[in-house]
Amino acid sequence: MSTWEPEDVDVVIPTIRNLDFLENWRGVLERCHIIVVQDGDPGRRLQVPDGFDCQVFNRRDIERVLADRAWCISYRDSACRCFGWLVSRKRYIYTLDDDCFLPGPPHVSKDVSSPLARHMSNLLTPATPHYFNTLYDPFRDGADFVRGYPFSLRDGVPTAISHGLWLNVPDYDAPTQLAKPLERNRRYVDAVMTVPRGSLFPMCGMNLAFDRQLIGPAMYFGLMGEGQPIGRYDDMWAGWCTKVICDHLGYGVKTGLPYVWHSKASNPYANLKKEYKGVFWQEKVVPFFENVSLTKGGTDAQACYLELAAQVRTSLACVDPYFQKLAE
Asked: How would DSSP label each residue in 81-123?
């Protein structure tokens, strides 16, 4: 694995609150540059604990930088975080939510206790999307390829995305929240696996890292929040788009470790209002992504995303005019 330093990573946090939760992350993030995207009232001054290198952007900054295109950054929604990787100059991004904390014993991986270090290990070792290794990630210490794994595929491919998981409050949709209000995830699985080529997955943005050089232009958290007919599908949208593009370009996506402790359950009734149309639309959107194809001219994430946008305009605008705006 290549070496890395905390200075190689920008940590992006969307929030409307003071950043007190960073105290829990001090030993992990205090050497990183932190980009805070402040949602909501830009006149409010957020309090940041001493000792952190934090740069705070609010809606006025978004409008100043993007001018008449500022509408493309979601307002009053955590999808505003993608402005953070737009202004970043680092190769690697780690984004997390402000209700996520370090997991304590016994929920600590034996090989690494820092979520950031685990994400970087995932990104800096190859992925294996073309053939599933039943012993999970063969590039972890103490693991390898199992008998019957083709030697021609053992070099793997570059990893573009590291998708971390969560303990405590599950990342459920509103109907499942309502059906299981007291359910908590206590199952810590000490494993990382590559999402197979040709398979989509539901990406969650609360504990996520990626390589801007490989996939950055496509990591757009969809237009949500105030003025939009849908919410809570921003990270899902980015997950569908980036997975299709990773498959096309020959990059990998890993999921599993690291875990964070997700402390708050959002209101299921408020979530249902945000998700309602998405519950129906996803039955059209997922088949679109399962069948979409990109041309040989798509040789990087930017070119692929422009192709994808044109196909969204052609194929999904009939579902709702919202997709015309999203394609734009």
From this structure: GHHHHHH--SSEEEEE-TTEE---TTSS-SS---HHHHHHHHH
| Among candidate residues 224, 214, 285, 221, the one with its CA nearest the CA of residue 254 | 214
Q: Tokens standing for 228?
A: 């939009």
* Concatenated DSSP letters of 187-228: -----EEEPPTT------TTEEEEEHHHHGGG-PPPS-BTTS
Q: What is the DSSP pairing of strand 33-38 with strand 100-101?
A: unpaired
Calpha distance 188→53 (Å, rounded) = 31
Instruction: Please state, in angstroms and rounded to a whole number, the distance separating the CA atoms of residues 275 and 266.
Output: 13
Q: Tell me if residue 26 falls in helix, strand or coil.
A: helix
Residue type, 199: S
Q: Are 294 and 249 in contact (CB under 8 A)?
A: no
List the Cα angle 199/202/204 in 5-degree steps.
140
- Distances in whole angstroms, Cα of residue 25 to Cα of each of 18, 34, 53: 14, 12, 13
**Token output for 304:** 């692929």
pLDDT along the chain (328 residues), means of 10: 89 97 96 97 95 97 98 97 97 97 77 84 98 96 96 98 97 95 94 98 98 98 96 97 98 97 92 95 98 95 97 97 97
Q: Which pLDDT score, from 0 to 100, does residue 154 have?
A: 98
Residue pair 111/42 in contact (Cβ under 8 Å)? The answer is: no
